[in-house]
Design goal:
The protein has one helix and no strands. The radius of gyration is 33 Å and the shape is rod-shaped. By secondary structure, it is mainly alpha-helical.
């Protein structure tokens, strides 16, 4: 085997490894994008839940006030 053949083999192996590395980097980038989207979605759901909880609390306060008014009216 002469030097050119050995260099050719090294170049081919290097090229194949670069292709594999590129595939892995693309997979990682895709995973990172998926995790970021998932994180954003979770944060949006948490914010929506917080707003709904605040609304429910306010509605419950109004119901309690109305029931208090009914109790007072019945007691008279």
């Amino acid at each position: 085997m002469n030097n050119y053949s050995m260099l050719d083999i090294v170049a081919i192996v290097s090229f194949v490894l670069q292709l594999q590395n590129n595939d892995e980097l693309q997979k990682q980038t895709s995973n990172d994008e998926i995790f970021k989207k998932l994180h954003d979605d979770v944060m949006m759901v948490l914010e929506d839940n917080r707003e709904l909880c605040t609304e429910i609390i306010e509605q419950n306060k109004q119901i309690i006030q109305m029931l208090g008014g009914v109790d007072n009216a019945q007691g008279n």
